[in-house]
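Lecture notes, continued. The same structure-token format from the folding unit now serves as the input rather than the output. Read the line below as a description of shape only.
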């Protein structure tokens, strides 16, 4: 995906996909349907995204992650996590359908990649390397582990409980959590 930010066409295409997903599974929605709903021609879509899965990845990164970044950047972990889950709850129908996508274009995989990137950007990698004596336990593996844990809880849990669990997981060691 091109390193793009939010622009009007991207937002319109994202809203079109979200709207269409209210009545159809995402995997069955075509580019033509997205562009017709958005009121643009197909080449416009392809000027911005390779396919609908890249558009979905853009939604994850821009609608969710980038919008929460100022909170995370200012040390507001609980508020950032709350924002993410609240944003997903507001568009629950869309995200429930997105979560059902499996395989190469799985939504959970996209979320894991985005969360892993967020963790790596904020991780003190040098400090982590000093504390961990195993060369195979890289910052990337630690970030992947936490991202996997963070992205594999269903949306059936109340937001307040999810936030509490994620904050505990992010701030405590396994020994502290167990005991």
């Amino acid at each position: 995906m091109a390193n793009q930010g939010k622009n009007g066409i991207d937002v319109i295409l994202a809203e079109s996909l979200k709207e269409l997903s209210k009545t159809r599974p995402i995997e069955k929605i075509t580019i033509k349907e997205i562009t017709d709903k958005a009121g643009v021609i197909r080449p416009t879509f392809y000027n911005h995204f390779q396919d609908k899965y890249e558009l979905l990845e853009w939604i994850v990164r821009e609608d969710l992650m980038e919008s929460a970044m100022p909170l995370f950047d200012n040390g507001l972990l609980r508020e950032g996590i709350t924002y993410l889950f609240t944003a997903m709850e507001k568009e629950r129908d869309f995200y429930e359908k997105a979560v059902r996508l499996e395989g190469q274009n799985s939504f959970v995989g996209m979320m894991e990649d985005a969360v892993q990137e967020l963790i790596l950007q904020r991780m003190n990698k040098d400090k982590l390397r000093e504390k961990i004596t195993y060369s195979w336990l890289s910052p990337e593996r630690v970030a992947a582990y936490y991202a996997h844990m963070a992205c594999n809880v269903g949306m059936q849990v109340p937001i307040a409980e999810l936030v509490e669990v994620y904050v505990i997981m992010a701030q405590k060691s396994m020994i502290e959590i167990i005991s």
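Point for the exam: The radius of gyration is 18 Å.
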